[in-house]
TrEMBL record:
Entry keyword Transport: yes
Compartments it resides in: Membrane
Membrane topology of this protein: Multi-pass membrane protein
Protein name: V-type proton ATPase subunit a
Transmembrane segments: 422-446, 467-484, 547-565, 585-602, 631-654, 756-777
PANTHER family from the UniProt entry: V-TYPE PROTON ATPASE SUBUNIT A1, VACUOLAR PROTON ATPASES
Length: 819
């Protein structure tokens, strides 16, 4: 035991030792101190104002200002995106500015952009109206020329037109002399011209026909140019229309319908000379407005580009400032002493670095009073912190997804680094598929720096985060594939010649006649001659099923052994005596014994039926084994193991609750005073302080029921968990048979035809099935099953997972969501 206790500590085996600290910070150096701690990222603050709402906290106004600046920065980012510009990836190097100065700059930039956008929208609206008017003049003029002879015959005044667009006052002034409405001729034919969205033309015409009861003539033609919608900045197709009608009532109806459909109506004179003059004036105005718009856009783009150079730096600065003030709001503000009081957790190894950062903050803020940093006792359980790197982080995340380890609890991630990819490979064993996974993993690892700085999709982000898991899964898949001797389901004589040959000289078909062994066994893995033989499936089923049981028993024993190390570490001798020992006895009396029988049968080549041995070990323990006996004294050993398994169940169930009850009774009858203290010890503590002790009342019935549930769960789980490991056999068999089907029924079948097209089609189908079914779906299935084996069958033997993660205040952990 001394040797075990003297082993060097592992970074991942136990979480970092934590200490509870208190900070007393003068007001003048509080902001700088918290900023330096955020750069360090090794202190987790406790919220001492948990009972207060966000609006009752000390620095609420500063948080609001930072939130408003974040809104402005998001507005700038949206404007840059809409303009089609790219923000500068490398922020401009400029001296640091104060938050107040940045706030003034952001306000000025926002007002400038809003004003430019408003002017641009007005100019764009006027430009669109002139462009529409130009197209109406051109298209409607063609309609009027085609109907001019009929109009001249009727001598009808057609110059009285309707103009309903209020935003077109500037252009209308050009036509005041030419377009003064004359006396209305109620009995004459009149017309209204305008422009409408092309998608509404059919419904518009149908509505006009119904409203006028067919007493109108509707002409329309598609506009030559598309119009930009100022709201969405998208190009919209429009059509020019002219409606001929008669009567004031019809005119009123048509105007209302035009308004409801969003159609813009423009005056078109019948006189060709006037129409030409107005067209020239409109073209002149369009040219001027176009130049003005281009200049405005260039000016706005220049301003956005200037903002884009600093956007990244400003965003980080505001995000950090908001995080600092949010953290300051977690501290208690002592008005009388003019200081802030904070509490938190930090790793023991970081105390020196934290003290150096606080001293630097005191010096840089020219404070006359230093920051007090001292360690305190805490009755609250500390947070869990494991130092990980790029390689181990993904495996730690797999464990944390089940539950964060309790403080100083044995960490399953240490063994998961090897066992998880290995169990995956047992189900996915094929060295051809493993090479494909390896190439994918190597691509992600080689491009690690580039991909880590890019924004990936959800699937690619998940794949990139697990690149090192994928790497080990691929390597173990190649290893297991070499053992199974499968390369896309095809066996190869890699390690020498087969140990089997045809029975006699007349043997021409080894797959149907059978094989005999004539030399030493194949040196590594499965002999390639098993593939396609009559006994292939029984042989591989037997091998993989027994192998799955062995792996399961070994991993479950590892879990129980880790529970022993947990109990020794926390000084819990009851768990060692009344949990670890009976669990080891029960599991190995049954399934450990089965594993030994499997190994003996493999080594001796016995024909004993292990199903019969295990079943009659329970039904008839004293019956003679006959041909199923594997070694001398097996029957006596089975009786001893069975009695041990039966005794282990009450051993787990009864002693621990009664011993806990006796210890509790002794403690409160005056025999033990270790946990007692004076009543005034904690009167001066903060209401939410972690230094307050929390005494849980002892409830014997609750403890006994909990122990009974735990014992029953272990006894039943020993059977069900061992059976659950048979999924290793089932998925390995399914993967192998599916690969065989695709190879024989797709690739070989297509290759049997002497036609290059059929062969190419067969090769494409085989590649598609391999990539999407075997490499994606099958790998995902094996991944999930390996995950379940670790979470349920392995970790429930020792892992409580009821801790909480160490979340230090760190600028490096801030994300865009913090805005």
């Amino acid at each position: 035991m001394e040797y075990i206790d003297n082993l060097p500590p592992m970074d991942l085996m136990r979480s970092e030792k934590m200490t509870f600290v208190q900070l007393i910070i003068p007001v003048e150096s509080a902001h700088r101190a918290v900023s330096y701690l955020g750069q360090l990222g090794l202190l987790q603050f406790r919220d001492l104002n948990d009972g207060k709402s966000p609006f009752q906290r000390t620095f609420v106004n500063q948080v609001k200002r930072c939130a408003e600046m974040s809104r402005k920065l998001r507005f700038f980012k949206d404007q840059i995106h809409k303009a089609g510009l790219l923000p500068s990836p490398n922020p401009a190097s400029e001296p640091d500015i104060e938050l107040e100065e940045l706030e003034i700059q952001l306000t000025e930039h926002e007002h400038e952009l809003i004003e430019m956008n408003s002017n641009s929208e007005k100019l764009r609206q006027t430009y669109n109206e002139l462009l529409e008017f130009k197209m109406v003049l051109q298209k409607a003029g063609d309609f009027l020329v085609s109907t001019g002879n009929h109009a001249a015959a009727q001598e009808t005044e057609l110059s009285e037109n309707v103009y309903t667009n209020d935003g077109y006052a500037d252009t209308a002034s050009l036509l005041e002399e030419e377009m003064q409405p004359g006396p209305s001729n109620q009995s004459g034919v009149r017309f209204i011209s305008g422009i409408i969205c092309k998608s509404n033309v059919l419904r518009f015409e149908r509505m006009l026909f119904r409203a006028t009861r067919g007493n109108m003539l509707f002409n329309q033609a598609p506009a030559d140019d598309q119009i930009m919608d100022p709201a969405s900045n998208e190009m919209v197709e429009k059509s020019v229309f002219v409606v001929f009608f008669s009567g004031e009532q019809a005119r009123t109806k048509i105007l209302k319908i035009c308004e409801s459909f969003g159609a813009n109506c423009y005056p078109v004179p019948e006189d060709l000379t006037k129409r030409s003059q107005i067209t020239r004036e409109v073209l002149s105005r369009l040219s001027e407005l176009g130049a003005t718009l281009e200049a405005g856009l260039r000016h706005r783009d220049k301003a956005l580009t200037s903002i884009g150079f600093h956007l990244s730096k400003w965003t980080n600065m505001v995000r950090r400032e908001k995080a600092v003030y949010d953290t300051l709001n977690m501290l208690n503000f002592d008005v009388t002493k003019k200081c802030l009081v904070g509490e938190g957790w930090c790793p023991i190894f970081s105390k020196t670095r934290i003290q150096e950062a606080l001293q630097r903050a005191t010096f840089d803020s020219n404070s006359q009073v230093g920051i007090i940093f001292h360690v305190m006792d805490a009755f609250e359980s500390p947070p869990t912190y494991f130092r990980t790197n790029h390689f181990t982080n993904a495996y730690q995340e797999i464990v944390d997804a089940y539950g964060v380890a309790k403080y100083q609890e044995a960490n399953p991630a240490v063994y998961t680094i090897i066992t998880f990819p290995f169990l995956f490979a047992v189900m996915f064993g094929d060295w051809g598929h493993g090479i494909c996974l390896l190439l994918g993993a190597l691509v992600l690892i080689v491009r690690e720096k580039k991909l880590s700085s890019e924004k990936l999709g959800s699937f690619m982000e998940m794949l990139f985060g697990g690149r090192y898991i994928l790497l080990l899964m691929a390597l173990f898949s190649i290893y297991c594939g070499l053992i199974y001797n499968e390369f896309f389901s095809v066996p190869f004589h890699i390690f020498g010649h087969s140990a089997y040959k045809c029975r006699d000289a007349t043997c021409s078909d080894a797959y149907s006649v059978g094989l005999v062994k004539y030399r030493d066994s194949y040196p590594f893995g499965v002999d390639p001659s098993w593939r396609g033989s009559r006994s292939e499936l029984p042989f591989l089923n037997s091998l993989k099923m027994k192998m799955s049981i062995l792996f399961g028993v070994v991993q479950m024993n590892l879990g129980i052994i880790l529970s022993y190390f947990n109990a020794r570490y926390f000084g819990n001798s009851l768990d060692v005596k009344y949990q670890f020992v009976p669990q080891m006895i029960f599991l190995n009396s049954l399934f450990g014994y089965l594993s030994i029988l499997i190994i003996i049968k493999w080594c001796t080549g016995s024909q004993a039926d292990l199903y019969h041995v295990m079943i009659y070990m329970f039904l008839s323990p004293f019956e003679d084994l006959h041909d199923n006996q594997l070694f001398w004294g097996q029957g006596v050993l089975q009786v001893i193991l069975l009695l041990s398994a039966v005794i282990a169940v009450p051993w787990m169930l009864f002693p621990k609750p009664f011993i806990l009850k006796r210890l509790h009774t002794e403690r409160f009858q005056g025999r033990t005073y270790g946990m007692l203290g004076t009543s005034d010890m904690f009167n001066e503590e903060e209401p939410d302080s972690a230094r307050q002790p929390h005494h849980d009342e002892f409830n014997f019935s609750e403890v006994f029921v909990h122990q009974m549930i735990h014992s029953i769960e272990f006894v039943l789980g020993a059977v069900s968990n061992t059976a659950s490991y048979l999924r290793l056999w089932a998925l390995s068999l399914a993967h192998s048979e599916l690969s065989t089907v695709f190879y024989e029924k797709v690739l070989l079948l297509a290759w049997g035809y002497d036609n290059i097209i059929i062969r190419l089609i067969g090769l494409a189908v085989f590649a598609f099935a391999t990539a999407f079914i075997l490499l994606m779906m099958e790998s995902l299935s094996a991944f999930l099953h390996a995950l379940r084996l670790h979470w349920v069958e392995y970790q429930n033997k020792f892992y409580h997972g009821d801790g909480y993660k160490f979340r230090p205040f760190s600028f490096a952990l801030l994300t865009d969501d913090e805005d």
